[in-house]
Amino acid sequence: MDQDGPENIFSATTSVADDRVTVVVTGEVDMSTADGMFRAATDEEAGRVTLDLRGVTFFDSAAIHTLIRLAERYPAALEVIPSPQVRRVLDISGLSGQPWLVTSD
Question: Rounded to two decimals, what is the model's pTM?
Answer without folding.
Answer: 0.88
